[in-house]
Amino acid sequence: MATVVAAVEEHSSRVESPRLNELEYQQVCRLGQVMSEDIRICGRSGSHFPILVIPMHKLVTMVRKNLAAGHILVRDVRLNGGAASYVLQSGTEKAEYNDIDLIFRVDINGVENGSDRVKEAVLHSLQEIHLDHDDKPLPACTGFIEDAYIRKMVKVSNEADWWSLICLTNASGHHVELKFVDRMRRQYEFSVDSFQIELDQLLSFYSSEKPQLESSCYPKILAESVYGPFDTALLHLNRKLIATNSPEQIRGGGLLKYCYLLARGFRIDSSFDFSFTKYMCSRFFIDFPEIIQQYRKILSYLRDHFSRDDEKRSQFLSILYDVVQESTVCLMGQERKQTLDLISSIAQAEQLAHQSSGCVRFGPPNSHWFQGFYNKHLFQGIVGNIPTNINRLKREFPSLLFSPNTVPFIYYLPNIAHS
Question: Per the confidence metrics, is the pTM higher than 0.85?
Fold first, then answer.
């Protein structure tokens, strides 16, 4: 009895923190919807690995169990990012989200080869999911599983940070990002993406005999804003306002997130210092100094955050162009012009693809593909019989010159009349 009372008192004292808030019944229902949804983990194209299907809450439980088997303590598990904003936002217009971001807060102190153990726990979970649906086992070598199902992996280890990210592939772009965090100096970019919803109570509820959410019986779940006061961050989310703290700490991708929010109808809070965009531009060019790195990052962001037919793609690129043009103070004029030309060329290729009912694709060239190259100095088409409007692009962006040290990109433009 004393233990129960102590747990209730601890819960009550935590709720009193301005950074925390207890979810209402409708929010818990939305959270249950997100965590009950079947996710599809897709094998790499051409790999002949099957699609793995599992409810999100079962995946979390499985990964947590395998982490414990590897002697890694999990303090708690949290839902983060756009899915957390979707759960918390009030009103009829709900936040959009593509990926599902999960944070496993782990204690890695004294654990030898901690990042390897984390990866093994995830790969072993994928093997278990497959065995639940198919008697034929996956290859015993985890390297094959990693190549087939893992879209990307990131590991950061220094005095201020220890965390790793494993992203599971989904063919429709709805990836699942598993982040394992012992310590992280900066856990958010803007107030509207600072929410973390604790999942432990919900996971325990699902493990009960009759896990049915009802207004008279549902788990008490806390959400935290790591930005600061929860009510302030939620107000920003509901009113679609952009605000942050210490913008100089935001990594390079924050510039793209800022432009994404503007394209989605967010606006800067009137009380906020507009000069923060200079910090974000500077950090973007520190993290992605080469033109090919900028190109890959922008294309990757478009692919991960916008559907192919999303009209906001062109608006995002237009906003990015304006922000870079107005707020970049760390580059020489020629370097800035190269980046602006890069953004313009991507935007015009998007427009051409849209007008031709085609799409931008990447792969080996053939007689129907337009092939070009980018690097630090470069824009040059090399295939004959090129559409007139593509030649116009080359004339309009002379600052991007040809160099033999190149990386290929491909524009597929069907149904365009060739001159």
Answer: no
